[in-house]
Description:
The chain has helices at residues 2-30, 42-52, 56-67, 86-95, 126-138, 142-147, 149-169, 175-192, 202-218, 223-226, 238-267, 275-285, and strands at residues 70-75, 78-83. It is mostly helical. It has a domain at 1-100. A two-stranded antiparallel sheet has the order 1-2. A hairpin with a 2-residue loop joins strand 1 and strand 2. The model has no long low-confidence stretch (mean pLDDT 79). Residues 1-20 form the signal peptide.
Amino acid sequence: MMNLLNGLLHLLLVWISAQSLLFIIRNHSRTRARNLPPGPSFMTAIRNLLYLSSRPHKCLAQLANIYGPAMTIQLGYVTTVVVSSVSMAKEVLLRNDASCSYRNPLISFSVLGHNEATVAFLPPNSYWRNLRKICKSQIFAGSKLDATRGLRRKAVQQLLSHVQGYCEAGVPVKIGEAVFTTSLNYLSNAFFSMDSADPCADTARELRKLVWGVAEVVGKPNFADYFPQVKFLDLQGIERRTTKLVGQAIRIIDAMITRRLQSREEVGYVEDDDVLGALLNISGQQR
């Protein structure tokens, strides 16, 4: 029985590889016709797909030195345009932001319908414009950033104290983990008025653990993102793990929203000075 399953799996992988190779060859021949930037050949792209999984920044930097600040890379079935200079980034993010805003979501970002409710992956429609307007007015506006200046200062001071303590103890500092903790602590304060660094706050500690877990999972390259034929197999278990972690995080945030609404009902309307309060106000105005 196991030999039969192994044989079927082998045949499936051979078929997928053959189909993918044919697709890449055909797609590469159409690149010029679609007026895309230059890029490596399809054989080079196959080799780079393996290299990108472990050192994407170094691989892309080396390719940019060869093909320029805008290049086209075929990653499996996904045609990807990579920009790697300030001028090209401005061209994409500022001058053509509406045209370049929509992108195919990765599988890990699509669990539980997340891609249908986030600015990063929505097409430029009315809902997307409304979300952008809310982000601009409630998060990135100058007055909002000024109001949270104290939170940023507090988070940086906590980071410095953390690093100093490690230095005095002669222990190496895990920079990535320290920066992640600092950023999450600031965001949890700004969004929920909750200190994620508080060891006594069970909800904050659990949310921090979940966010860290999600960041680790979605940071891993997923073979199924480049070869959709094997998505249903979830060979690396990324979709399964992400669904579990995101589901747990959503339940925690739902509970926080419920408690905030109950608190408002008990004491009457409160002008909350965090993002959650602002979003609840907007949601109430739109009903």
